[in-house]
Amino acid sequence: MVRDVRLNRRRFMVFVAALGAIGVLGAPAALAASEQQAKDMVAKAIALYDEKGDDALAIFNQGAASGFLDGELYIVVQSTGEGAKVIADAAKPDLVGTPLTEIIDVTGKHFGEEMNKGATEAGGWFDYQWPNPATGKVQHKKAWTVLHKGKVFITGIYD
Fold first, then answer.
1. What is the pLDDT of residues 34-70, one digit of tens each?
2. Is the CB of residue 109 less than 8 Å from the CB of residue 118?
3. CA distances in angstroms from 50 to 20, 88, 127, listed in the order given
4. Smallest Cα–Cα separation from 45: which of 75, 70, 89?
5. Measured on CA atoms in the order 23, 27, 28, 29, is the torsion positive or negative?
6. Which stretch of DSSP H or E encloses residue 123?
7. Contact indicator for 61, 88 with CB cutoff of 8 Å
8. How far apart are CA 2 and CA 41, in angstroms?
9. Taking a C-beta distance cutoff of 8 angstroms, is the pair 28, 140 a contact?
10. pLDDT of 118-156, one tens digit each?
11. Which of 101, 108, 33, 44 is nearest to 73 (CA)?
12. Centroid of chain to Cα 26
């Protein structure tokens, strides 16, 4: 009986360790979006914009119902030029109309303006700290940005 208890205790400990490994190591990897998924979402948003013009912005702002908010991935669109601002945000539509001069991360980085000024038609990556809508925690974010028809289309992934 003592041996059975030890064996069961070992099995229990192995089971607990396995659950911990799955929960701690497996879940974030399964939930984390990839660079390719970010690029694909921006391409999908640009395709909808090309089809519907500015009407696409209202669609983006519908969040998950629009197909442009999926876990940590969501589309943001900025205007360009003097007075540039957020014109669509699938995760936080309340940011629509916010001047980019007011978009600052927790480290004080003016990443909204930085992405806007640095965006190209070929696309590029920008880093900053921002709340992850899937977890609610501020995390490092790497955003894919593309300049298209005078607008900057953005989506990002979290570490």
1. 999 999 999 999 999 999 999 999 999 999 999 999 9
2. no
3. 46, 15, 27
4. 75
5. positive
6. none
7. yes
8. 58
9. no
10. 999 999 999 999 988 888 899 999 999 999 999 999 999
11. 33
12. 19
- Lookup result for tokens 């497996």: 26
Global pTM value: 0.79
Structure tokens of 64?
């998950």
Within 10 Å of residue 62's Cβ, how many Cβ atoms?
A: 14
Residue type for position 149: K
Cα(125)–Cα(155) distance, integer angstroms: 10
User: 3-class DSSP state for residue 56?
Assistant: helix
Domain 33-158, second-level architecture: 2-Layer Sandwich (3.30)
Domain ranges of the chain: 1-31, 33-158
Q: How many CA atoms lie within 13 A of 10 on its CB side?
A: 6
Nearest to 139 by CA among 158, 112, 126: 158
Q: What is the rounded distance in angstroms from the CA atom of residue 36 to the CA atom of residue 89? A: 20
